[in-house]
Amino acid sequence: MARSAATQPRTRGKKPTATMLKVNGFPGENELRDLQFKLAYNLQSTLDVVNTLELFFSNIQDLFEVNGLSFDNLEGIELKLGSQEKHSACYNVATSTIQLGKIEFRRAKPFLETELTLMEMLIGVLFYPLRNALLYRAALDSSMRDPLTGIGNRQAMDNCFAREIKLSLRHQTPLSLMLIDVDFFKKLNDTYGHRAGDKMLKHIVTNIKNSLRETDQIFRFGGEEFVVLLHNTDAENARLTAERIRIHSAITPMEIDGENVASTISLGVTTLIDTDNVESFFERADCALYQAKKEGRNKVVVESSNNMRQHNRNSEAHAGQSSTA
Ligand SMILES: Nc1nc2c(ncn2[C@@H]2O[C@H](COP(=O)(O)OP(=O)(O)OP(=O)(O)O)[C@@H](O)[C@H]2O)c(=O)[nH]1
User: Fold this and answer.
1) How far is the centre of ligand 1, averaged over its atoms, from the C-alpha of 51 (Å)?
2) Which of these is catalytic: 54, 224, 225, 316?
3) What separation in Å is there between the alpha carbon of 115 and the centre of ligand 1?
4) φ, ψ for residue 278 (rounded to 5)?
5) What is the pLDDT along the chain (325 residues), one digit of tens a residue?
């Protein structure tokens, strides 16, 4: 493990405890084995990455003075614990074939050579529990992703919907929902083949993402249908966003067999109201999408709760007529 330690002296820092002082003289073989065993035992109690690193941090704080720990890796995990003091010791947590990330320890005064040696041994104990936790996290993450487009799948959407509705109602911030369906997608599949269809789905998702903010969430609902949750977005802004996405998709072709092909999309949009639950919120957007398809496709329809009541009345009246006819 590569390491580097900054060496500027500094006076601030935690007062050494009795245990720390004991370890400042390097532990004997038996003591070292006990420390490693105790740490390994403690780290076995969790498969969560954050918990694993928190446990590791608190365990090593019992041994010597460390005020801060940070960890980051290429998969985008970034964690900072404690305070970020001036002196650091940095390790690449890796074997010749497995790269887990970079771990850094910080404190106000320079690390001693004995402490750095001990730290390396303790990182050796951390390696497998951390690897297991990272693998578990990756497995959970991939079970929530649509493999074709890489966005959240239906399960991820179900997990997030109820929570977002609750938060929006509690904080009284607007939340809008878009249901997006690709137009005449069967024809595209039939004309250019399923693989070209797959490519088009990825292309459409990229277009949608490029028109959204970082905080908005997109999911694949199934087939050629997508769902977008727009945070802190009222009905008018949701309509503007939907129009932008619709136009972007219609004017951004993708090359298939040397031909430029663009797919249009239809969008149903609605905004959360106080009396909504997951079903009513979703049903309104679905109703709007149905309307957009009915009105010729390549269209945005915004459904307010008032319109919805009107639709319901109309369909009841229609049902009455049919039954008497
Ligand atoms: N290539 C590809 N096609 C898919 C995928 N999922 C669903 N489909 C196809 O999407 C098509 C959807 O067809 P329809 O439900 O009739 O809808 P549509 O042709 O888009 O017509 P409208 O929605 O009414 O405009 C079907 O042919 C499905 O096989 C996928 O992952 N990849």
Assistant:
1) 43
2) 224
3) 62
4) -55, -45
5) 444 444 333 333 444 343 443 455 677 788 888 889 999 999 999 999 999 999 999 999 988 899 999 999 998 999 999 998 999 999 999 998 999 999 999 999 999 998 899 899 999 999 999 999 999 999 999 999 999 999 999 999 999 999 999 999 999 999 999 999 999 999 999 999 999 999 999 999 999 999 999 999 999 999 999 999 999 999 999 999 999 999 999 999 999 999 999 999 999 999 999 999 999 999 999 999 999 999 999 999 999 766 655 555 554 444 333 222 2
Give this complex's ipTM: 0.96
Q: Which domains are delineated in the chain?
A: 3-143 (3.30.450.40), 154-324 (3.30.70.270)
Can you read off the two tokens belonging to residue 321? 């007529």
224 is catalytic: yes
DSSP character string of 147-189: TTT-SB-HHHHHHHHHHHHHHHHHHT--EEEEEEEETTHHHHH
Give residues (CB < 6 A) around ligand 1: 148, 181-187, 189, 194, 197-198, 201, 223-224, 293, 297
Q: Point out which residues pair with 80 in neighbouring strands.
A: 70
